[in-house]
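Weekly structure sync, notes
Attendees: PL (lead), two postdocs, one rotation student
Agenda item 3: pending single-chain targets
PL asked that the sequence for the first pending target be pasted directly into the notes so everyone works from the same version. It is reproduced below exactly as submitted, 162 residues in total.
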Amino acid sequence: MMLSDKNISEALESGLLKIDPYPELIQPASVDVHLSGSFYINGSHVASDNSFWMFPGDFILGSTIESVALPTELSARFEGKSSLGRKGLLTHISAGFIDPGFSGQITLEMVNLSNEAIVLYPGMPIGQLCFFRLESPSTYPYGHSSYGSHYQGQTGATPSAV
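Predicted structure, written out during the meeting:
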């Protein structure tokens, strides 16, 4: 079951779901998240407080400002903002699913599919998180020792650990 704005607010207020900083905007069935100043570009970590241009075909890793901590009974999906998608920006290529038990910032796999440059800047709304209640809590949530969860507690743009 997907959580509504009411469910999300209740989960945040009770401490079941943690998002830091606390969300500025809870949508009807999601929470807006923002682009941090942490990027991984051409094999190097880059920190920036300034805007920059993503040119056609560019691929970079970014991350959300917000850190999220999911309990064992919730999972989430990262979805891009439609206004950016309409400009040709994919904000996650294939890894939008967030397992129960995950804790950390969300790494974004961004690519400019348009024929024009797109300006990005730290703090801009970059996507939204949708939350789903599991029928029962996960027995072995993300971060459990049996998985070797590479990205638990990640901060900033995190390259592949594989």
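Discussion points:
- The first helix runs from residue 5 to 14.
- The mean pLDDT is 91.
Action: rotation student to compare against the earlier draft before next sync.
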